[in-house]
Amino acid sequence: MTAFILLIDRYTELWGRLLAWCIPIMMAVTAGVVVMRYGFGAGIMAMQESITYLHGSIFMLGAAYTFKHGGHVRVDILYQRFSPRTRAWVDSLGTLVFLLPLCGLIVFSSWEFTAKAWAIRETSAESGGIPGVFLLKSLIPLMAINLALQGVAELLRNVRVLSGAPSC
Prior knowledge:
Blueprint: H1 2-20, H2 22-40, H3 45-61, H4 63-68, H5 76-79, H6 84-119, H7 133-163
Helix pairs in contact: 1-7, 2-3, 3-7, 6-7
Function: Part of the tripartite ATP-independent periplasmic (TRAP) transport system.
Subcellular location: Cell inner membrane
Domain Tripartite ATP-independent periplasmic transporters DctQ component: 26-160
């Protein structure tokens, strides 16, 4: 079980570290769009759309990384006072009742939407835009799968706490 938890954690950590590099790239592209538009009176649609792709990638694929590091919103008024064992119960129930069913719903409801985009290799509606809208739409089920994987790792970690095993 520990090896499985660590494997998922390494996978999530790798995604998070790769996505971190998208932030300065997105900032540079945004600055480039502004300079092109206001400095030279020109716009490059692919540059503008690439900001949306980078932004979507950071937020959608970074959700599992944020979850792993405890960065998602939670009501801490009572939680911070709970014992580690009570926190493990709360987190386990939250994962089982809310997180995993939500991830399943997102995958289920976005699968056909994404498959249709792939079937026609959906492209940008804008002239000169990025011909990869199907890739952007693929982030939806991929986000849910990554988040569910990290949810399973956190659930197993909580099971270890509840069983009295050393944490990993």
